[in-house]
């Protein structure tokens, strides 16, 4: 019987090819989008679930209690050894440090190669905690030795080609020679490790005066600490025991630490500690549900609208002995056939869109991942749900048709029902589209506001050039002087980091003047030479710039520092004593700088101090003339390479850095634009199908109206008026919903744009315009048809 249902379903669908195509295309877009979302969600949900003892693996994190609470995915460098030696909770403890974009020099086929790679420094026990298999290694060597390294298979291929990587040596940042002693299997895509070069932690002790030492006085976000706990440990009890460590090692600090254990399963999903915001995943799931729902709405609307024209078929079936359940299953089988075709097209759509999707979200998803039991289960469930949700209501509606009335042709459209339901569903379609358009406008305005608002410093035409870590002050001064002589260069400064748009952030405690204790808050450090203010056009509101000196004796602070300590007049800060970084900095305040945004707009402006210290400078900033930029950049590179022959030259523009701070928001915006367009496209397909039906249903009425003098505009208004009413009703429901959602999203910003009423008006007018365009062709075509033909229509 099921075979017969499918055969009849196929014949019925072929009789109404346009409506069938509309239903299939609408559902196909929904299916394709759902497949992409499935790949995305399953990728994120599978993070680090392949480790043998993943339920016992924890990362140590820190809650910093000052004037507010900060969350850091790290602990002081001395924490690991303290926990390892004096506590009996863990089987293994290991530290991990991350260095990004670091130079490697080596020889390959008698050629000198220079590359920049991200790398990890790991203690040997790290590979006892995590299951990253070692493929081959030199059996007599160990990662416990300094200057040794493991590489993954892909990294070995990238660096050494087809040569045997074992025994190969590399020069790390022109400081240490590293030998490859092992090759690891490639990391799974869904893991926290992305780098394919892992160097022994003992090597870091030679390179980093802070992360590689045993200190409690600070933390760096590049350092992480993991533990494999013994079975059946009480995490709360461990955290309680760790409360004694700050009292023991940091008793004089106002920056009160609480060390906590973060489960491995939480590492990828906790935005407080740098993980993915689960809101994004929820947004994906909800949008996928929206798109599928709109496709189902199209099917229901078109099916119920056609019920009148299938009434005789239903009447004959009932007279010949069909029961309601037979008719119900017949309509469900039609839905199933459409869903199967839509699924096939949806898979093709997803495969075509996947490269762009990967590029947008910086992922590596593959269609091959769909060849799994989980995916086939997901598809089967989706097919059943879509077929049932789309086909059950039209099936119930049509099975209720009275056969006598149907066969006598005495049914009207009210007898077939579904009119009110169609209106409700169309309103739901419009509401979803209005919400997505409004969200797109709000996100776009916030990004534009963040990028184009005055940040308090000049970011235009500023080139940031990296300099090597080990650099003599005399050598640096010589380089900046030579760069300043280039005709296209207007200003030059050497610094630790730019005023904003930099990930290189250094926070420290501060003691003001004669106050006996350090302040509750932390200050951001901006180390730079005397020309920093001029280059970035920073404004002094009181005092002067610091003078050139061999040590830090003078500092500048910003206005926010004065507000934090309760001094509102900047002049009152001048000449006051200033101590920071545990007493390393002892100076006088000689100037106050106007506040500028040192972070993105999710963060408040920080209290900041500036001082000069050439040994900590990491970059050179150059303000260049916008004419002949390419010539100027070439001259800058030539001058830089004359000084640093053995280093790779790299630069970027500061305004690009500022924009990069909002990459996640840009993804939200792109996501909103894409899915808004898809929702509108699916909705337009449904509206087009309905207008085809309505025009066919009211052909005689159009002819009569034309005979009585109605013009094309009158007839167009006749059909658009009903849709516009539904759009306005949808706007009434969508406006508060979208306002609430975007208000919640904007709560994450300290500095934010406003949500104005016109945003929702634009969204509603956009839907009206798109709807008008969608229905105009068929309506105008019917309106200009000869009324004689219309009146002869049966």
From TrEMBL:
Subcellular location: Cell membrane
Main subcellular location: membrane
Domain spans labelled MacB-like periplasmic core: 20-242
Transmembrane segments: 21-41, 280-302, 327-350, 370-390, 424-443, 674-695, 707-735, 755-775
Keywords: Cell membrane, Membrane, Transmembrane, Transmembrane helix
Entries under Pfam families matching the protein: FtsX, MacB_PCD
Keyword Cell membrane assigned: yes
Membrane topology: Multi-pass membrane protein
Domain ABC3 transporter permease C-terminal: 286-401, 674-787
InterPro entries to which the protein is assigned, alphabetical: ABC3_permease_C, MacB_PCD, Macrolide_Exporter_MacB
PANTHER family assigned: ABC-TYPE MACROLIDE FAMILY EXPORT SYSTEM PERMEASE COMPONENT 2, MEMBRANE COMPONENT OF TRANSPORTER-RELATED
The protein's name in its UniProt record: ABC transporter permease
């Amino acid at each position: 019987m099921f075979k017969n249902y499918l055969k009849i379903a196929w014949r019925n669908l072929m009789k109404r090819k346009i409506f069938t195509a509309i239903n299939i295309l609408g559902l196909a877009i929904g299916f394709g989008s759902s497949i992409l979302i499935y790949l995305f969600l399953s990728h994120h949900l599978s993070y680090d679930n392949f480790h043998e003892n993943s339920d016992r693996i924890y990362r140590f994190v820190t809650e910093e209690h000052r004037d507010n609470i900060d969350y850091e995915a790290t602990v002081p460098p001395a924490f690991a050894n303290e926990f390892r030696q004096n506590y009996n909770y863990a089987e293994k403890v290991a530290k991990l440090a991350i260095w990004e974009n670091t130079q490697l020099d080596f020889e390959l086929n008698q050629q000198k190669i220079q590359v920049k790679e991200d790398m990890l420094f790991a203690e040997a026990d790290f590979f006892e905690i995590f299951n990253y298999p070692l493929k081959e290694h030199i059996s007599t060597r160990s990662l416990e030795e300094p200057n040794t390294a493991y590489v993954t298979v892909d990294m070995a291929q990238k660096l050494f080609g087809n040569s045997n990587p074992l025994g190969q040596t590399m020069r790390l940042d022109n400081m240490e020679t590293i030998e490859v002693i092992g090759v690891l299997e490639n990391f799974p895509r869904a893991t926290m490790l992305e780098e394919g070069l892992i160097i022994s932690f003992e090597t870091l002790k030679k390179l980093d005066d802070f992360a590689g030492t045993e200190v409690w006085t600070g933390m760096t976000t590049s350092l992480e600490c993991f533990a494999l706990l013994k079975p059946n440990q009480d995490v709360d009890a461990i955290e309680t025991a760790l409360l004694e460590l700050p009292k023991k090692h940091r008793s004089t600090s106002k920056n009160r630490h609480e060390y906590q254990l973060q489960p491995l399963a939480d590492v990828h999903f906790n935005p407080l500690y740098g993980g993915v915001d689960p809101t994004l995943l929820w947004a994906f799931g909800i949008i996928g549900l929206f798109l599928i729902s709109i496709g189902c709405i199209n099917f229901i609307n078109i099916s119920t609208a056609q019920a009148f024209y299938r009434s005789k078929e239903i009447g004959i079936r009932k007279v010949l002995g069909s029961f309601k359940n037979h008719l119900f299953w017949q309509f469900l089988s039609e839905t199933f056939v459409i869903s199967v075709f839509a699924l096939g097209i949806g898979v093709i759509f997803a495969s075509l869109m996947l490269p762009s999707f990967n590029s947008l979200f910086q992922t590596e998803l593959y269609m091959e991942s769909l060849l799994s039991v989980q995916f086939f289960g997901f598809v089967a469930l989706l097919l059943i749900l879509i077929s049932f949700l789309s086909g059950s209501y039209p099936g119930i509606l049509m099975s209720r048709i009275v056969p006598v009335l149907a066969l006598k042709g005495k049914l009207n459209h009210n007898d077939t029902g579904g009119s009110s339901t169609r209106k409700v569903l169309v309103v739901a379609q419009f509401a979803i589209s209005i919400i997505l358009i409004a969200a797109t406008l709000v996100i776009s305005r916030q990004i534009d506001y963040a990028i184009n608002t005055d940040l308090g410093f000049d970011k235009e035409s500023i080139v940031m050039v990296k300099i090597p870590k080990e650099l003599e002050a005399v050598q640096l001064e010589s380089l900046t002087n030579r760069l300043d002589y280039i005709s296209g260069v207007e200003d030059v400064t050497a610094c630790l980091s730019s005023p904003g748009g930099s990930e290189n952030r250094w926070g420290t405690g501060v003691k003001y003047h004669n106050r006996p204790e350090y302040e509750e808050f932390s200050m951001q450090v901006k180390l730079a030479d005397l020309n920093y203010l001029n280059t970035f056009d920073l404004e002094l509101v009181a005092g002067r710039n610091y003078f050139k000196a061999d040590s830090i004796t003078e500092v500048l602070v910003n206005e926010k520092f004065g507000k934090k300590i309760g001094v509102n007049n900047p002049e009152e800060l001048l000449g006051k004593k200033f101590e920071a970084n545990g007493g390393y900095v002892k100076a006088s305040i000689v100037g106050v700088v106007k506040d500028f945004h040192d972070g993105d707009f999710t963060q408040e402006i920080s209290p900041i101090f500036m001082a000069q210290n050439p040994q900590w400078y990491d970059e050179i900033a150059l303000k260049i003339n916008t004419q002949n930029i390419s010539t100027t950049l070439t001259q800058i590179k030539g001058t830089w390479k004359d000084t640093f022959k053995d280093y790779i030259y790299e630069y970027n523009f500061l305004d690009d850095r500022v924009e990069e701070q909002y990459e996640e928001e840009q993804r939200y915006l792109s996501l909103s634009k894409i899915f808004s367009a898809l929702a509108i496209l699916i909705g337009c397909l449904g509206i087009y199908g309905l207008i085809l039906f309505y025009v066919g249903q009211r052909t005689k009425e159009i002819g009569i109206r034309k005979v009585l003098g109605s013009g094309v505009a009158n007839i167009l208004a006749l059909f658009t008026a009903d849709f516009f009413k539904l759009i306005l009703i949808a706007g009434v429901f969508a406006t508060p919903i979208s306002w609430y959602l975007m208000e919640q999203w904007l709560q994450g910003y300290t500095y934010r744009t406003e949500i104005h009423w016109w945003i929702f008006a634009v969204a509603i007018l956009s839907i009206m315009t798109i709807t008008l365009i969608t229905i105009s062709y068929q309506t105008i075509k019917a309106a200009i048809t000869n009324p004689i033909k219309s009146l002869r229509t049966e």
